[in-house]
Amino acid sequence: MLEDIASRFLYYPEPIPPDMPPPQWAADSREVWIDTEDGVRIHGLWWPAPEGRPTILFLHGNAQEVYSWSLVREDLAALECGMLLIDYRGYGKSEGKPGESGLYADGRGALEWLRREGIEAGETVIFGKSLGGAVACEIARGVNLKGLILESTFTSLASVACNLFPFARGYTPADTAYNSLAKLPEIQCGLMVIHGDADMLIPVGEGEALFEAAGEPKCPAPQVRLSTESVEAPLRQGARPRRTSVVRRGSGTQPEWMQRRSNASVFVERGTNRLLIVRGAGHNDVSIVAGSEYGGRIREWLDGL
C-alpha cells in the first residue's frame, strides 16, 4: 500500500496531445519514435550533431515532458552537441506506465536508436537530471561511452525517501531501487557531477557521494581549483551575464577537498572526473544560478575527454 502511494509521488507524467507539434523554441527538432525492448513505443526530440561533435542523450527528471524540457538546449548551447531528448513511458506522447525497469528499458532503447542512426557509444554523452541520473547510471554500465553527466541526482531512492515521501512514514524503498551508488564503480567513462548546495530535495551530499564512488580514473589524486575566476561560455547575442560561485560542505568523515571552504569557485578534478557544486542553487535552478559558467565548465570537461 505504502509502496503504491510512494510510486504515485515519484512519477509525475504529463501528457502531450498526439497531434501537437513541438513548441516554437524547439521547431528545429525532429520528432522521433523509439521501440523499446519490451514493446513500448516512446517519443522524443532529435537534433543532429554538427560535424565532429558528440551527441547528448538527455534523460530528464520525474516531471513534465520533452516539450517543456527542450528548453535545456539553450542551457547546453555552448557544448555545440547533438541531442536526443526522450520522454519515459507514460510521459508526453509515449506509451505505457512509468516504473523502474521500464525507465531503464526506455534509456537502453534510446541508446540503440542512436546506434542505428550511426552514432556509436564512444560519440555519446549521457546526461541524467535528477531521476534521469539514476536511469543514466544503469544504462551506462558496460558501455564504452564518451562521458556521463549527473546533475542533482541521488545515490539511491532509499537514501532520499524521507525527502521524497515525507507522508509515507515507515516506508523504505528496497536498497536496490535506483541505486546509482552501487553501479558507479562499473562505469569507466569520464564523469561530471553537478549539484546545487541549496538543494532541499536531493541534498548536496548525494552528489558528493556519487563523485567519490566513481570508477578510478587514470589520475586519482583530486586537483581543487580555488579561484574567483570562472570558465564561461561565450555569451550569445541578447544573453544576460549571471553571477556564479561554487563550493560546499559535508559532514562527518570527508575527503580533504570536501573540507575546503571558500567564497570563490571550487571545481574538483580527479583524472577525467569532475565535480561542480553551485553555491546557492536548489534542485531546479542549477543552470540559472551558475549562469554562463554552467555551459563553460561542461564544455571544458567534454573537450578534454
Short structural summary:
With 305 residues, the chain is an alpha/beta fold. It has helices at residues 2-8, 66-69, 72-75, 100-116, 131-140, 161-164, 204-213, 286-290, 292-303, and strands at 12-13, 30-35, 41-47, 55-59, 63-64, 82-86, 124-129, 147-151, 190-196, 223-227, 265-270, 273-278. The chain has nine helices and twelve strands.
Walkthrough of the structure:
- By secondary structure, the protein is α/β, with parallel strands linked by helices.
- The protein has a single domain (2-217), classed as Alpha/Beta hydrolase fold, catalytic domain (Rossmann fold, 3-Layer(aba) Sandwich), CATH 3.40.50.
- It is built from nine helices and twelve strands.
- The N and C termini lie far apart (46 Å).
- Residues 226-252 and 257-264 have low confidence and may be disordered.
Compute the gyration radius: what is it?
Answer: 18 Å
Question: Biggest sheet: strands, sense, closure?
Answer: 10 strands, mixed
Q: What is the ordering of alpha helices and beta strands? A: HEEEEEHHEHEHEHEHEEEHH
Low-confidence stretches: 226-252, 257-264
The named CATH superfamily: Alpha/Beta hydrolase fold, catalytic domain
* N→C terminal distance: 46 Å
Q: Briefly note the structural class of the backbone.
A: alpha/beta
Task: Round the mean pLDDT to the nearest integer and report it.
Answer: 86
Task: Count the domains.
Answer: 1
Strand content: 15-25%
Number of helices: 9
CATH fold annotation: Rossmann fold
Indicate the CATH class: Alpha Beta
Level-2 CATH architecture = 3-Layer(aba) Sandwich
* Assembly state (oligomeric): single chain
Strand order of the largest sheet: 2-3-6-4-7-8-9-12-11-10
Describe the global form.
globular
